[in-house]
Amino acid sequence: MDVQYPYLVAGDLNVYNPATDPCRLLSFKEDSESTPYFRRAAHLGFILLTTPGVYTWFPFTGTHRSSAIDLAFANPRIFPAFPSWDASTLPATGSDHTPISIPLRPSSSHHNKPRPRWQEADWPNLTDGLKGWLVPLPPDTPSLTQLHQWFSSALSALTTTIEVSAPCLRPSLRSKPWWTPLLTILRKEVTNATRQVKKHQTSDTFLTARQSKLGYFKAIKRPKASYRADFVTKTSPNNIWTAKQLVATRKTPGFPSLPDASDTVMINKALLDHFFPPKDPLPGRGRLRRNPSAVPLSKDEITLARSKSSPSSAPGPEGIPYSVWKRVNLINHTIILDLLSPLVALGYHPP
């Protein structure tokens, strides 16, 4: 099951798990009944929303224990819109559990994607979770679709667990490494002066707006030049190309001249059709069977392949850099090995 749209699961099935109530002493029966639900949710990449230890039901007698809504999960497509879980602000409704507020942020028009700050990741807690991480077993003779679903769900559960351990930084449209608090103040002054010109349209307001704008642009040049000079003096093999872009003259952007292609969209389509012509889909392979002569992967091969990957290289489609994958492999080398071994034995390369 690979849900391609925002999906939220909430319910009270009277199952008890340490993830929702860490202070509760669970019996073997309670633990065995709740484990399949939480294991299935983790397998599909769902994240628990319930704040651990926050009770939503309080008994009227002293013979029962307080409890919480035991199932409240979100898939990775809706989890970024979830800011908080609150079970104390809304008035009672007569239900057995108190009302729960789950606010969701509307989709932002911001174009810059949040970047995880991996240097601030919670590695102690992540290490404890990865040490006992078990990759679910693949089907014995799966079809292409079944094997792809198994690999996608297992990888999604792993990457989601790694990503939520690091706080995200969402850069603004105007964020620059050389920006200073003084420039923020000067920009506000330019904005206020421009508003005064539109409101009054006098010679004094025009002069003030012009002086504010000139001072603002001059103030920008100083920290920008200082930042570039400092960056160039500290150049290393990892940022040599960035330094070259800072000192090189900017070229005028241009597009190749192609027949019957007058704009960038048509040029893009012509290049794609030429270098990547569409092909008819290959016939289905039916059920996949393991090749008995396939050499199994080893942890030394995984370690050797990771050692050749530069930490400064661009990450793959999942957005996790090689330095994080190297650390995951050091914590538990069986995770990546169990993910890739069935693909080699069944002769399948995921798209």
CATH class of the domain at 1-107: Alpha Beta
Low-confidence stretches: none
Overall average residue pLDDT: 81
Cross-sheet strand order for the largest sheet? 1-3-2
Report strand %: under 5%
Count of extended strands: 5
Topology, please?
Layout: E1 8-11, H1 28-43, E2 47-48, E3 71-74, E4 115-116, H2 123-131, H3 144-163, E5 168-169, H4 181-200, H5 203-233, H6 240-247, H7 264-275, H8 299-307, H9 322-331, H10 334-346
Helix pairs in contact: 4-5, 8-9
The gist of it:
By secondary structure, the protein is mostly helical. It has ten helices and five strands, in the order βαβββααβααααααα.
Descriptive report:
This protein is mainly alpha-helical and 351 residues long. Among the domains are: 107 residues, Deoxyribonuclease I, Chain A, CATH 3.60.10; 67 residues, no CATH class. Helix content is 42%, strand content 4%. The protein contains ten helices and five strands. A three-stranded antiparallel β-sheet has the order 1-3-2, covered by helices on one side. The longest helix has 31 residues. The chain is extended, with a radius of gyration of 28 Å. The two termini are 18 Å apart. The model has no long low-confidence stretch (mean pLDDT 81).
Descriptive terms for the model:
single chain; 351 residues; mainly alpha; Deoxyribonuclease I, Chain A; three-stranded antiparallel beta sheet; two-stranded antiparallel ribbon; 10 helices
